[in-house]
Amino acid sequence: MGNAARLHALVDAFVGQRVLVFGDLVLDRYILGTPKRISREAPVIILRFEEQRDVPGGAANAMANVASLGGTVLAVGAVGDDEPGRSLLEQLRQRGIDPAGISVLPDYRTVTKVRILAWGAASLRHQVARYDVEDCLPPTPATAARLEAALAAAAPQAAAAAVSDYGYGAVTAPRVAALRRALPPSALSVADSRFALTRLGPVDAATPNLEELAAAAGRTPQGDEEVAAAAEALRVSLAARFLVATRGSQGLTLVEDGLPPFHLPVYGTAQVVDVTGAGDTVLATLTLALAAGATPREAALLANLAAGVAVTKLGTATVSPGELHEAIERASFVPA
């Protein structure tokens, strides 16, 4: 495992690394308000609207994290020809991400997750309701051709690729296979799939959370030894070089072909505010670190630190190089 000086050098090397991020794009929309009174129509709180905030979510959050850490994003995905889609594209542009590889589809609704937050003069903001606008990409030849053409154009330029599958139809096993064939020989692909990791076919690496690992294993593993065994079984089934199992408050576990399991404690447990998007942060940081030349252990350590920073922020969040440098210095498990 790299020491602090090595990790700092890797973070500095993030700048300009070209990372292809492909997957299901989501708009995370936050409606913020202050409590006004109880409604006479129903036993619910009426909020006085204060503001609306739109931020990239899903694969778009992984894109935003790669960009915030200094990488160059090669974006591939799709949005609808609608107001949320236009907002999401604008949010990506504001973060320096070129949306040329993102298809705008007239027969598709941009996936939008709307969170309603309330707060008072002496209270923190917290969710009071959420609703999701969901759709599945139309399985038409035209849609497939547009996505596959964008992948074919972007992959040869990439130093690494992140695949973010939220189950809305962008990611399929044939597209993952085509992506891997089109990447340069030295570029690794890392997959994160909410529902279908075992059906995506061979990948170079994967980042399942504990729930996804349990689904693949058929039961919830308990403790380091069981988690490592389940992760290793999944790694073998995916023909992957390594696998990073994210475990929430228990940190993460790395299993790598030919090496013993590597367990990392969580960073910053006592400061957790919101875990929304933490998995996207892990995927983005891990893939960007690999593009910069990190070993799987170094990449896993940096991803663990980045996730620990992200969960200290309210809502879908990104991490900066400065915050990651600070985490390297503060983490007790990073060798000096």
Portion of residues in helices? 25-40%
Name of the CATH architecture: 3-Layer(aba) Sandwich
- How is the largest sheet built, in terms of strand order? 5-4-1-8-9-10-11-12-13
Would you identify the regions where 5 or more consecutive residues have pLDDT less than 50? none
Order of helices and strands: HEEEHEHEEEHEHEEHHEEEHHH
Task: Furnish the topology, listing elements before pairings.
Layout: H1 4-12, E1 18-23, E2 25-38, E3 45-58, H2 59-68, E4 72-80, H3 83-94, E5 102-105, E6 111-118, E7 126-133, H4 141-154, E8 160-165, H5 173-182, E9 188-193, E10 205-206, H6 210-217, H7 223-238, E11 242-246, E12 252-256, E13 262-264, H8 278-291, H9 296-310, H10 321-330
Parallel strand pairs: 1-4, 1-8, 2-6, 4-5, 8-9, 9-10, 10-11
Antiparallel strand pairs: 2-3, 6-7, 11-12, 12-13
How would you portray this structure in words?
By secondary structure, this protein is of the alpha/beta class. It has one domain: Ribokinase (UDP-N-acetylmuramoyl-L-alanine:D-glutamate ligase), CATH 3.40.1190. It contains ten helices and 13 strands. It has helices spanning 4-12, 59-68, 83-94, 141-154, 173-182, 210-217, 223-238, 278-291, 296-310, 321-330, and strands at 18-23, 25-38, 45-58, 72-80, 102-105, 111-118, 126-133, 160-165, 188-193, 205-206, 242-246, 252-256, 262-264. It has a nine-stranded mixed β-sheet with strand order 5-4-1-8-9-10-11-12-13, with helices on both faces. A four-stranded mixed β-sheet has the order 3-2-6-7. Helix 1 packs antiparallel against helix 10 (321-330), helix 2 crosses helix 8 (278-291) and helix 8 packs antiparallel against helix 9 (296-310). It is globular, with a radius of gyration of 20 Å. The relative contact order is 0.16.
